[in-house]
Amino acid sequence: MADPIHQFEIKELIPLEIFETNISYTNSSLFMSLAIIFVTLLLLISIKNKSLIPSRLQSISEIFYEFISNMVSDNIGDKGRKFFPLIFTLFTFLLFGNMLGMLPYSFTFTSHIIVTFVLAMFIFLLVTLLGIFIHGFKFFGLFVPKGVPMLMLPLMIPIEIISYLSRPISLSVRLFANMMAGHTMLKIFAGFIVPLGIFGIAPLMVDVALTALEVLIAFLQAYVFTILTCLYLNEAINLH
Amino acid sequence: MKKKLKEFNKRLGNLKKLNSKIKNQKKNKDFGVYLKSGVELVSAIIVALLIGLFLDNYFQSKPIFLFIFLILGFAAGIMNVFRSVKKLGFEVGFKKKNDKLH
């Protein structure tokens, strides 16, 4: 039977080593580059022939733009317009990464925790530094919940700090676990199809249904990651 | 009169169907919130565990800080889940005064 974990293996395509650090161009990097190239091409081609009545490609990029634009203005407000490019890049990068992983023979770079953790850590540091930069020392008022009696504060503040520090982990683990579990499950069911002969139709049907579910999850996880980034940014910009 | 009543009933039925449709759409929107709550619980405990181990290592006080922070981490995890399920917003801190409960 095919090894279900084999699909997550990192392969060095162009071995490269600088100062004893391995910075090879791997299949993971290849698919990251592909995601960026596809997003850029889609946006560039779709606005090439601009028209008031959009063509199919143009409507795709307009939908993307409006989707993120609404998300930013709903969750952050006017002050968040500056962060639109960041949020848009993040969403399209994750969405294309997840969706490219759904193609056969491809590699899902979001199924490696180090990739999602670096993304989440970047967001976390950005939000923290931004909050301190905008509000100064007041930003730490975030850890003092409102409406809590003074006596409870020594207990509540450590809990709030832990809850705040857990954000990059929950953000990264959610995306990574969903993508990895889904792809492993697909592979396990696929491994049963041929050995079962005629009865292989049952796992095949499960696999077809799971593929649809995986496409939904690929979109949903990119969306959840982005909307949480928006909510965290909102908190740093408009401190309550 | 009867005809009018029948017509009215039909219109009411249509509106009721529409209403339930909108409600269902709202439910689908919440799907992401439920997906995330499981991870919230675990991640808070992991962070607390790491802090506890680090402090114990630093002060050479083997299990004390680990115990304290695991309990705090569990509390933080429960609070994370509570917040996301109650939809009080994802932020640190309790409900704001003019927040609506959905």
Mean pLDDT of chain B: 74
Domain module count of chain A = 1
Shape of chain B: rod-shaped
From the alpha-carbon coordinates, what is the Rg of chain B to the nearest angstrom?
Answer: 24 Å
Folded structure, characterized:
The complex is a heterodimer of chains A (240) and B (102). With 240 residues, chain A is mainly alpha-helical. Helices cover 65% and strands 4% of the residues of chain A. Chain A contains seven helices and four strands. Chain A has helices spanning 27-46, 56-75, 84-100, 113-135, 153-165, 167-193, 201-237; strands at residues 12-14, 17-18, 21-22, 25-26. The longest helix of chain A has 37 residues, at 201-237. Chain A is globular and about 70 Å long. The N and C termini of chain A lie far apart (55 Å). The relative contact order of chain A is 0.14. The mean pLDDT of chain A is 86. Chain B has one domain. Chain B has helices at residues 2-29, 31-59, 62-86. The longest helix of chain B has 29 residues, at 31-59. Chain B is rod-shaped. Chain B starts with a helix and ends in a 16-residue tail after the last helix. Mean pLDDT of chain B is 74; it is low at 88-95.
Keywords:
heterodimer, A: 240 residues, mainly alpha, two-stranded antiparallel ribbon, 4% strand, globular, B: 102 residues, 3 helices, 80% helix
Give a brief description:
Chain A is built from seven helices and four strands, in the order E-E-E-E-H-H-H-H-H-H-H.
